[in-house]
Design brief:
The protein has about 250 residues and is an alpha+beta fold. Helix content is about 45%, strand content about 20%. A hairpin with a 4-residue loop joins strand 3 and strand 4. Helix 5 runs antiparallel to helix 6 and helix 8 runs antiparallel to helix 9. The longest helix is centred in the last third of the chain and has 26 residues. The relative contact order is 0.10.
Length: about 250
């Protein structure tokens, strides 16, 4: 699979032997309670699902992390080769199906025609049924190529290179990747690749996103408005919000 190129670039195959084990689609039908539409997504848009790497304390020098909320005893790297018919809006649905069916932390590597998209999801234990997990926040990078000169892609690859990830325990190892995926996803809104490691940075990003959504709302209202004075009013709101966004970005730098 072309996905192997991604694993070479991040240095994973220097540390761990690849499994490259094909996973039967039927497995996800059995382990996840899928409706017909979700089953169709798996059937129609996925060419192959592969367990590319399984990181455990036996395969890499990283310790498990176990507490009352999280059981991170290893990390799975799943490669999903998509068919040409797959569209961008299909990926979050497919990602949720895969993440929900596998209780372990999973890094999903979507591959389509030489392009890559990475998805991660934090999971915590279901307090009612300890054999199940609750999906928390999920993030997905934009599509990218490995052989281009995009500086954001270079920053992302450098951040998730195996030599730059924490080996203290699997929760921190996975969270390092998760935060890098989040940073890549938010690059367009934030204006730079910034890994938000603390709560203050996370809050600033959330405020920027909220302001950008407000700007979009007022722009749409202005397009439909026929009264000149209302257009002026909406434009002033847009300018004020834009100024606030720039101030928030400066705080984030």
């Amino acid at each position: 699979m072309a996905g192997q190129m991604f694993y070479r670039v991040i240095g994973l195959d220097d540390k761990v032997r690849p499994l490259n084990k094909k996973l039967d689609k039927k497995m996800f039908y059995d382990f996840a309670d899928l409706n017909k539409k979700e089953k169709d997504y798996i059937t129609k848009y996925i060419e192959r699902i592969e367990l590319s790497y399984l990181l455990t304390p036996n395969t890499i020098n990283i310790q498990p992390f176990i507490n009352e909320n999280y059981h991170y005893e290893g990390v799975m790297f799943i490669t999903i080769q998509l068919r040409e018919e797959a569209r961008d809006n299909h990926l979050p649905v497919i990602g949720e199906i895969i993440q929900g069916a596998l209780p372990n932390p999973v890094v999903i590597v979507f591959e389509k025609q030489g392009n890559f998209q990475i998805g991660t999801c934090l999971k915590r234990l279901n307090k009612v049924d300890m054999s199940q997990v609750v999906l928390e926040e999920s993030y997905y990078t934009p599509w990218f190529q490995l052989d281009g000169d995009d500086e954001t892609v270079h920053q992302f690859i450098k951040t998730i290179h195996i030599t730059n990830l924490s080996f203290s325990h699997f929760f921190q190892f996975y969270k390092d990747i998760h935060l890098a995926v989040q940073a890549f996803q938010h690059t367009k809104v934030v204006g730079a690749f910034i890994v938000a490691e603390d709560e203050e940075a996370q809050q600033l990003i959330a405020q920027i996103q909220a302001h950008e959504a407000e700007i979009t709302k007022w722009k749409n209202k202005m397009k439909k408005e026929t009264q000149f004075n209302r257009k002026v009013e909406y434009n002033m709101k847009i300018q004020q919000l834009t100024k606030q966004v720039e101030q928030l970005k400066q705080q984030l730098q």
